[in-house]
């Protein structure tokens, strides 16, 4: 796997800025729209489960599961941005991820934050 498969985040062309901070230097919050989130649930692939089980015996990174989690987080983030944009926001502040097991059949990933309208100061 190349380095591009291990990461995520936004492209420079994104319409909605997403940050993990309370504010953005050089900008002021004109309007708080409210909480937004993007949610996805992914089941585990049988092949990756078997591979992960074998790998756990000898140690090391579970690359198949890492790739799946990156894809899942990116999908949750895309849904977060789509919801913020649909509500008229141009930014999401305090973005976080929440990851939980979903009924022993998959992993739920939720990206959430506060949708706002920012203006340059």
Explain this structure.
This protein is α+β, with helices and mostly antiparallel strands and 121 residues long. The protein has one domain (3-120): Hypothetical protein apc22750. Chain B (Translation Initiation Factor IF3, 2-Layer Sandwich), CATH 3.30.110.70. It contains two helices and four strands. A hairpin with a 3-residue loop joins strand 3 (91-102) and strand 4 (106-120). It comes from Streptomyces hundungensis.
How many strand segments?
A: 4
Strand order, sheet with most strands: 1-3-4-2
Straight-line distance between termini = 42 Å
Count of distinct structural domains: 1
What's the level 1 CATH class?
A: Alpha Beta
| CATH T-level topology | Translation Initiation Factor IF3
Radius of gyration: 17 Å
How large is the share of residues in beta strands? 35-45%
- Uncertain spans: none
User: Count the helices. How many?
Assistant: 2
Question: What name goes with the CATH superfamily?
Answer: Hypothetical protein apc22750. Chain B
On the 0 to 100 scale, the average pLDDT is 85
- Which structural category fits the helices and strands? alpha+beta
Shape: elongated
Order of helices and strands: EEHHEE
* Largest sheet: number of strands, sense, barrel closure: 4 strands, mixed
- Please give the share of residues in helix: 25-40%
The CATH architecture can be given as 2-Layer Sandwich
């Amino acid at each position: 796997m190349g380095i591009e498969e291990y990461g995520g985040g936004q492209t420079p062309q994104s319409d909605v800025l997403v940050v993990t901070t309370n504010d953005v230097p050089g900008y002021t919050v004109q309007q708080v729209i409210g909480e937004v989130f993007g949610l996805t649930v992914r089941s585990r692939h049988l092949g990756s489960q078997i591979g992960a089980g074998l790998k756990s015996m000898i140690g090391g990174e579970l690359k198949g599961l890492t790739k799946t989690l990156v894809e899942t987080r990116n999908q949750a983030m895309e849904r977060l941005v789509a919801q913020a944009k649909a509500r008229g926001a141009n930014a999401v502040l305090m973005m976080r991820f929440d990851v939980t097991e979903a009924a022993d059949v998959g992993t739920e990933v939720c990206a959430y934050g506060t949708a706002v309208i920012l203006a340059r100061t």
